[in-house]
Write a structure and sequence with these properties.
This is Dienelactone hydrolase family protein. The protein is 35% helix and 23% strand. The protein is α+β, with helices and mostly antiparallel strands and 88 residues long. Strands 1-2 form a two-stranded parallel sheet. Helix 1 links the parallel strand 1 and strand 2.
């Protein structure tokens, strides 16, 4: 299925995430590496699952802001402006 992805993927992980154990993350990374898809991976050390949500007690504003910076940069690369895609 990853061979059908057109565009780019952004994957961010909390270092302490019970929903994404290391073996699962490693398998996903291998699938991405073997696929013809552009992706970026960021692991945030010392943060927990849910770090992006400001109402959670585990919110990490620095990690969340970094994710937004990278997602917006990806969107700028992938979404056409005036009919021109910027694949930077």
């Amino acid at each position: 299925m990853l061979d059908q992805v057109r565009g780019e993927l952004y994957c961010s992980y909390a270092d302490e995430d019970f929903t994404a154990p290391p073996a699962m993350v490693a398998r996903w990374e291998q699938l991405l590496a073997d696929a013809p898809v552009r992706y970026q991976r960021v692991a945030h050390p010392g943060v927990q699952h849910g770090y992006t949500m400001p109402t959670r007690d585990v919110h990490d504003p620095v990690a969340a802001e970094r994710d937004w910076e990278l997602v917006v940069a990806m969107l700028r690369r992938q979404l056409p402006v005036d009919g021109v895609r910027r694949d930077g």
